[in-house]
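Entry for modified acarbose hexasaccharide complex. Fields follow.
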Amino acid sequence: ATAEEWRSRSIYQIITDRFAPVSDTAPALTSPLPDDCDPGQQTWCGGTWRSIIDKLDYIQNMGFDAIWISPVSRNIDVQTPYNYSYHGYWVNDPTSLNPRFGDSDDLLALSDAVHKRNMYLMVDIVVNNVPSLDNTTSQTADALVADDSFWQDPSYFHPICNIDYDNQTSVEYCWLETTNVSLMDVNTENAYVISTLQSWITSLVSTYSIDGLRIDAAKHVPGTFWPGFCGAAGVFCIGEVYTSDIGFGAEFQTEGWMDSILGYPYYYGLMDAFSVAPMGNMSSYITIAQSVLNSFPHPEYLGNFLENHDLARFRNLTVDPRLGQNAMVAQFLFEGMPVAYYGQEQDMAEGSRDPYNRAALWPLGYENGTTTELILRLNTIRHKMIEQNMTWNGETYMDARSSFIAYTDYDVAIRKGPIISVLTNRGSPTQNVSFGVPSTGWARNEAVVDLLTCNEFATGSGGSISVSYSADGYGGLPYVFMLVSDARTLNICTND
Ligand code: ABC
Ligand code: CA
């Protein structure tokens, strides 16, 4: 699928080993399985492509219509100083599948099951680096043989050096890791390497009908490598560009390196405003979000997340659930595709960092709660506006650019087409304040509804709206306002 086909989607990120347990239909492939999955042990907990199939209902019932799964290729399968490669990123042979997750029939079955639901399949891929238990240049050749690597010639790698993150050339040519499990940097300028990787990705995408790729460590490969690679893939490419530097991130689009990147810059804005404790830095969020809109030609292709397998769980950093609710509105209803990390919907709080942020989901059950319902609601609002091409002032939700129509140090109102999200970082304690949006753009005396609670309001003089964080006991909840007439059209909040 293309970027244009992806942009309406909402993505659920899965660590294959950790999302769903073995069952009758998904028997264990790996042994021994730990009795309980302790992420600190960095070993397999047993999830497979088949076990994901068992739980697709759970994902779809929250309104997601795409999944992103761990890398599918073969990994080194030995004990290392970081124990085992349960995460799938230590790929030593892209051309074979990882038997820990299943075989070719199993991956085909997952792809089929996903497509039968009209969902998309995104696969994580690693080309920048290849693991080695050795870390000296002279021994690279031996290491490759010892690790049974697909790449048997040292000329397929750059010589060892440590990355200097202030120097982009070094970021591209040096090794991501040089101790314990070294990550040898692939020579992505070598003609044989280029053509081999291109043929591999063409074949992987077509064999398993993959709809999109999440490209690991994309900033560690010269940008000019990607158009040929993503062209060979023929599907949407979204790169992992781990940076808060908006200008650098935007180059992936402006230079035409790939369709898009995961929204690290926006993430840092969300963290500034909503993470850790109430009364954070809202103006930083607004500045960053506005700059993202100004810098990316296609902000609607970004992937917006609050947590992932390399970062702290949001609810590990942030105890107050109100901050999470506001942050999720900003995650789901801003330009870009929402990307929710498995467990976010269960308020998973374990994990300030890798490996603790990758706990198994199954001990928490797959129950519905406040956060799963909020996610379903946000996905539903977004999907319905997009499907029905709802417009405001002649612009659809997708085409309208978010505009920050009112703000204080702790509150912001964002108009995006037919909706106005009103967010605060005041947190749970009620405060004797209200936040006024003097001109919403709607007329005076219009009936509007908060789509999160279905409470109705009327606009005041000049089309104003005011929300109160005091007496009514709501605390700092988010609001998503829409005209009642539009909500009727979408059939949201009409069940009373
Ligand atoms: C293993 C162990 C860990 C141990 C670690 C040292 O080694 O498991 O317990 O702590 C995979 C596995 C990991 C494993 C690694 C290494 O391999 O998943 O468990 O860790 O063996 C991707 C993937 C990631 C994956 C790899 C490697 C790459 O998402 O899961 O890891 O295939 C860098 C890379 C990025 C990479 C990330 C982990 O490291 O760029 O591609 N992720 C700065 C740098 C970033 C850097 C980041 C974190 O630090 O600029 O490039 O990411 O190290 C902002 C700045 C940013 C800055 C942040 C911190 O602050 O703007 O630039 O990021 O303000
Ligand atoms: Ca590189």
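NOTE: The chain has a mean pLDDT of 95.
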